[in-house]
Amino acid sequence: MKRRQHLGHGLRKRGGFTLVEVMLATVLLAIMSFVCFFTFSTVVRAWTVSTETADKMQRADYALNQVVSALRSAWCPTSGNVNDNTYGFMLIDDGDADDSCDMIQWTKLGSAIIGTRSILRETPHTVRVWAQPAEGDNPGGLWVKAGQLDLIAEEDREDYDFDDDDVFEPYVLVTGVQGFNCRVLDKATPYNDDGTPNWQDEWITSNAIPRAVELTFTMEPTEPRGDPVRIRRVVEIPLWDLSQNGAKEQESDNDRERNRPRGGAGGGGQPPPPGGGGAPPP
Q1: How far apart, in whole angstroms, are the C-alpha atoms of residue 173 and residue 201?
Q2: CA distance 214 to 115
Q3: Nearest-5° angle of CA 174, CA 179, CA 184?
Q4: Cβ atoms 41, 210 nearer than 8 A
Q5: Cα torsion at 114, 111, 183, 61 (round to 10°)?
Q6: Which residues contact 95 (CB under 8 A, 6 or more apart)?
Q7: How many CA atoms lie within 13 A of 174 on its CB side?
Q8: What is the pLDDT of residue 251?
Q9: What is the full per-residue pLDDT of the chain (282 aa) written as tens digits?
Q10: Cα separation, 222 vs 162, whole angstroms
């Protein structure tokens, strides 16, 4: 009987856990929990960052496509009035930094930027596009104004602008844009000697349209210390050739008849290249 009790006591003693074993198991469980939590947190954070980045890129791509389409829909009158700069292209440069906010303005047709429900889409209208940082209740992003020139008396068009926000109310095309940089192809010398585009930060010929425009959007970084995202696009404007008539004096009937090509060697009745000296190298 004593032997059985002794054996039973020994079995009970070997089936328990010591304090060291309990503490070691607790430490291992804590380490495993921390590793699992850290891994899960990293995965969730990476998924969140990638989702936000994709969302910003999608919104920026949408805004950029709208601006590209609007530039390709540029419009100007065919009268060639050298004194009328209402319908030309305007560029106000704000530098080349990531947070620089250039402004461009031109006249266009169609529903790009303004939407398919706007009554302006059927007639020529002027649009202004610029970037604006967030400040107070105003969200930062790419801002737009639109107005119809036909509603303004011709004698008042020289002073026509979009500075009155009460008359022409601006709206945000897309948020998350912290910088907008625009450059235009030089009118006189569009290409350098090495064949690279000669981009300029100013457009002096305000009553004409540039041949090509380079747009660069800078999106806000997804992470607090992350790098901003830049999206660049080059747009060729089909109407640039026709708009050059507004940037030079019109010939009289006698001058036009005298300067008209007569054919023969080197002539062939073809007019000289448009833009004068600005033709790209072969």
Answers
A1: 23
A2: 23
A3: 105
A4: no
A5: 80
A6: 181
A7: 24
A8: 42
A9: 555 555 455 545 556 778 888 888 888 888 888 888 888 888 887 787 778 777 777 877 888 899 999 999 998 776 555 455 667 898 999 888 878 899 999 989 999 998 888 888 888 888 999 998 877 777 788 999 998 866 666 666 666 666 777 778 888 888 888 889 999 999 888 899 998 999 999 888 777 889 999 999 888 777 777 788 888 899 999 888 877 765 544 444 444 444 343 333 333 333 333 333 333 333
A10: 33
- For residue 28 the two structure tokens come to 């291992």
